[in-house]
Design brief:
Helix content is about 40%, strand content about 20%. It is α/β, with parallel strands linked by helices. A hairpin with a 2-residue loop joins β8 and β9. α2 runs parallel beside α3, α6 packs across α7 and α6 packs across α8. The radius of gyration is 20 Å and the shape is elongated. About 25% of the residues are buried. Keywords: DNA-binding, Phosphoprotein, Transcription, Transcription regulation, Two-component regulatory system.
């Protein structure tokens, strides 16, 4: 399971780009659409985990999109609008929106509401419980669907690249991964930078996890690479 995919339906390109940058910085995958009719077609045909839905859109407004989506899917929908009329909010929630935010909004509040909406179990079984998929080694736990890492119950804040590296190590726990394997998986086959970047990011992870919690999770196998062990 990869990082949650968020579909941004917004016809103001500046706002759409801002949301895309902030969400991707938090580790989410994103897609955007500025046309209401096309947005509904993509929601029906493509695979997303959450929709951020503007109300004022060309060809099909957000209320109509929400109502039609609810006929075929229970995907979480957060409405975003410049209209703060109470009746609009009530209508949006009544036709199936999970949440409703009025512009302008604080990005941290939006991110919190996104996390909350993604925690809710889906009727289609994609999240069989409130935790979803869980990767664990001792007291180190990762919830990929929530983009969340906890050690001994305390949440650990990681950058997108740190998170991707840790996820790869956890999915291959007990296996020793070479620097080349890590580079190809986490940085991509077309990466042409210094291979020392792996060592640098391993140090970042150790500082936030091993050192901070005074317990060793990430091991070095000399001449080979790195591994997470039970």
């Amino acid at each position: 399971m990869g990082n949650p995919r968020i579909f941004i339906v917004e016809d103001e390109r500046r706002i759409a780009r801002f949301l895309q940058i902030e969400l991707e910085h938090e580790g989410y995958e994103t897609a955007t659409e500025d046309n209401g009719l096309h947005a509904f077609e993509r929601i029906a045909q493509e695979d997303y985990d959450l929709v951020l839905l503007d109300l004022m859109l060309p060809d099909m407004d957000g209320m109509t999109i929400c109502r039609k989506v609810r006929e075929i899917s229970d995907i979480p929908i957060i409405m975003l609008t410049a209209r703060d009329d109470v009746e609009d909010k009530v209508n949006g929630l009544d036709i199936g929106a999970d949440d409703y935010m009025t512009k302008p909004f604080a990005i941290q509040e939006l991110l919190a509401r996104v996390r909350n909406a993604l925690r809710k179990p889906r009727a289609d079984g994609r999240d069989v419980d409130n935790e979803g998929e869980k990767l664990q080694v001792r007291d180190l736990v990762m919830y990929p669907s929530r983009y969340e890492v906890r050690v001994k119950g305390e949440e650990v804040q990681l950058t997108k690249k740190e998170y991707s590296l840790l996820e790869y190590l956890l999915r291959n726990k007990r296996n020793v991964l070479t620097r080349d394997q890590i580079l190809q998986e986490v940085w991509g086959y077309d990466y042409t930078g210094d291979t020392n970047v792996v060592d640098v990011y391993i140090r970042y992870l150790r500082a936030k996890i091993d050192d901070h919690f005074d317990e060793k999770y990430i091991f070095t196998v000399r001449g080979v690479g790195y591994a997470i062990k039970e």
